[in-house]
Amino acid sequence: MPNNNLKNKIKKETYEWINALVYAVIFGTIIRLFVFETMMVPTPSMVPTIQVLDRLFIEKVTYDYTKPKIGDIIVFWTPFVDKTAQKQLGAFDKFMDLFAPKEFDGHVKYVKRLVGTPGDTIELIPDSKIWDRIENDPNFKTPYWLQKIIENYGSIDKLPSSVKNSVAQLYVNGKIPKGFEDRYYYIDGIFASKNYYKFMAYPEKYSSDIYRTYTEIRKPMFDLGAFRYYNNTLDYTKYYKKYLSNLDLNKVFIEKNGRVKVVLPKGFYFFMGDNTTESFDSRYFGIVPEKNIIGRPFLRIWPYNRFGSVK
After folding, report:
1. How many other CB atoms are there within 10 angstroms of residue 20's CB atom?
2. Axis-axis angle for helices 224-233, 207-216 (nearest 10)
3. pLDDT tens-digit readout, 223-264
4. Residues with active-site annotation
5. 106 pLDDT band (50/70/90 cuts)?
6. For residues 267 and 246, what is the distance between their CA atoms, to the nearest angstrom?
7. Rounded CA gap, 34 and 25, in Å?
8. What residues contact 95, with CB distance under 8 A and at least 6 apart?
9. pTM over 0.85
């Protein structure tokens, strides 16, 4: 008799544990699908705001009720398959991505700062005053990426004019957005050539144009080989055909007096990383559809010594 009671108790407890586990999986999946997301940051594109290997908790609800604002740090699905980044994902991230919408199979999460919303006209305008600010304003904090460049050359005086002329501020609809007064970016990608995305999509077709363009502006790192690499690793032609080929690109990318403006079409956003010289962002890969936005990283959960909010 006692043995039967023990067996029944074990069965009952086992059943309860199984029930609890099933409910935990169900509710965990629901929370994962609709409320929270996680990601490990593999690159330094947002340094010093976000460090390499930071693990972020992403809240997905806010943008269901409000539109993203310029200056927000946002996590989004790449609008293309990123074969290289896929290989960098750990087992946990690959498992969690199994719950993602089917259309994002092979895509990965990027985290960047939002700098342009639908209807905005954005441009990077060189700012020669920054050099005086660095040398004479004790309250000015030199951007992390620019300090690295200055240290590499030894001093501001030794910086090539091509570098100095490429340090710029962001203008949205003709003004520097609030909060961007001390943010600086490097003019590159689409802001250096209105044909950049076209070159990415069809490097062989435009090989002579690529050579001529990047010889003239003296940026040999963007040779035909580089465009071939990104075209393949990002499956970029498919992205271009799906999104950009349907737009009037002469109205989206406007070049005047050697400067390119981007007029964002309805439903598309533009993102850039704070660490601009080490950020693969919308300057290079293109505009991002609204449906790709996942949410905002609100908490850094790893490493423990950096645990806290993300701003």
Report:
1. 10
2. 120
3. 788 899 999 999 999 999 999 999 999 999 999 988 999 999
4. 45, 112
5. confident
6. 13
7. 14
8. none
9. yes
